[in-house]
Specification:
With 153 residues, this protein is α/β, with parallel strands linked by helices. 31% of the residues lie in helices and 35% in strands. The longest helix is centred in the N-terminal third of the chain and has 15 residues, at 38-52. The radius of gyration is 15 Å and the shape is globular.
Length: 153
Amino acid sequence: MKDIQSFIIEETPKTPQVELNPFTGDFIFSGKSIPENAAKVYEPILSWVTGYILHARPTTNLRLNLEYFNTSSSLWLAKIFKVLARINEPDYVLMFHLYLPVDEFDELEEFDDIKDAFFPIADVLQCAIPSIGLKIYGTNDADEVVKDKVVFI
C-alpha cells in the first residue's frame, strides 16, 4: 500500500459520504448522490480506485448505502465497479454490501428476484477476475440492519 492513503469525501445534501480505506479494503458510499456535476465528485474516486487495485487487499468490501442516486451517479459507480473487477488476483474477493429498506428487502424472495434487481451490477462484473459476493441488508426507518442474506454472483 505504499503511497496510497485513505480517501474521504464529506457528505453534502447532494453528494454522498465516501470513505475509501486501502489498509482495510473497506469502501463506504452512504447518503444521497444527486450532484449537478457527477464527474467532479466521481473522477477523483475513480482515479484513486485505479491506483488501489494495483495493491488491493485480499478482500475488498464495497458498502453501498445510498438512499437515492441519479443516473449520472449510477454511470460513475458502474465505472468504479468495472475497475474493481480488474483486481488481478483470482483468489481475492470483491464483496458488495447493499442496503435496502426492509420492505424492498422482503420483496426479494427468490434468487431470480435478486438477480433481476441487481442485474446491472452483475452485468458490469461478468468478466471479473476476483470472486464476487453480494450481501443484501434490510434496514428499518432508523437505518438499522434487521435482515440480511448472502448471494454469490
